[in-house]
Amino acid sequence: MQIDIVTIFPAMVEHALQAGIVGRAIERGTLAVKVHDLRAFTTDRHHVVDDVPYGGGPGMVLKPEPIIRALADIAGGASTRPTVLLTSPQGTLLTQNVAARLSRDARLVILCGRYEGVDDRVRDLVDEEISIGDYVLSGGELPALVIVDSVARHVPGVVGDEQSVVEDSFSRGLLDFPHYTRPAELTIDDRLPGTGARALKVPDVLLSGNHAEIRHWRKREAISRTLQRRPDLLASADLDDEEREILRQLTAGKLE
Ligand code: SAH
Does the beta carbon of 22 lie inside 6 Å of ligand 1? Predict the structure, then answer.
């Protein structure tokens, strides 16, 4: 998969792309990400990318021509037409399902807005606007990184163990079960926040070596967490028979 990002702050994006799972996928060539400096597509001496808004009011607006030139440069001559995304708080809310859908595209272009946003005529060249949440950021760079990371996790070969993506929160409409690692017992000092000195233990079942019981416990934890924290997800969750039975028991227990 190839992703092109257009931004006025390439360094902000490039650095973050080097770390972790995304960084490794780029190194291995499973994922290709190119970052384009919008200023390189200006034609004036001062490389101006913004201008005052028609109609007046505060703030600046990203000019359309450099963005159009960047898109022509990226998409022109490409054998597959890329899907062009515009980061925008007014866009489709990014969810695990949206990330999985976008991961099936061979090429994505992500446009990062700044200031008050981009000249609205740019939307004519955009396939979809994507929002990463109901809050306003100062630019599309962090959203672009969020999009790349969440989309890349669905590209085969990016996450080492594909089962872990399937089990991740939201993948089947459930939150993930809790995870523990060594030591089996953790001593917490009474200077630390909480209720005095205490020992925190890993649930016994995880140390039992009984794989059937562990699997069942994890399903139960995933469902009870979802029920407690995000009951809205359960309506469209993709549950198997065992999980449906666990949910029935947990909801019956709650009503008692
Ligand atoms: N005036 C605009 C916000 C501009 S914020 C409005 O109210 O709709 C500047 C840029 O940051 C946007 O163009 C967009 O690219 C990016 N941005 C801000 N919040 C975002 C969000 N929640 N999701 C995706 N992009 C966002």
Answer: no
Ligand 1 close to Cβ of residue 7 (< 6 A): no
Q: Which atom of ligand 1 is nearest to the CA of 118?
A: 13
Asked if 219 and 246 count as a contact pair (C-beta separation under 8 A), the reply is yes
| Closest to 199 in 3D by CA, of 180, 179, 183, 181 | 183
The SS3 of residue 215 is helix
Question: Which residues, in sequence order, are bridge partners of residue 185?
Answer: 201
Cβ 173 under 6 angstroms from ligand 1: no
Q: Rounded distance, CA 246 to CA 252, Å?
A: 10
Give per-residue pLDDT as tens, 71-110. 999 998 778 899 999 999 999 999 999 999 999 999 999 9
Smallest CA-to-CA distance from 159 within 103, 84, 237 is with 103
Which atom of ligand 1 has the smallest separation from the CA of 134? 22
For the record, the structure tokens of 14 come out as 């490039």
Residues 126 and 111: beta-carbon distance below 8 Å? yes
Map tokens 């994890």 to a residue: 218
CA torsion angle 131 79 6 38 (round to 10): -150
This prediction has a pTM of 0.95
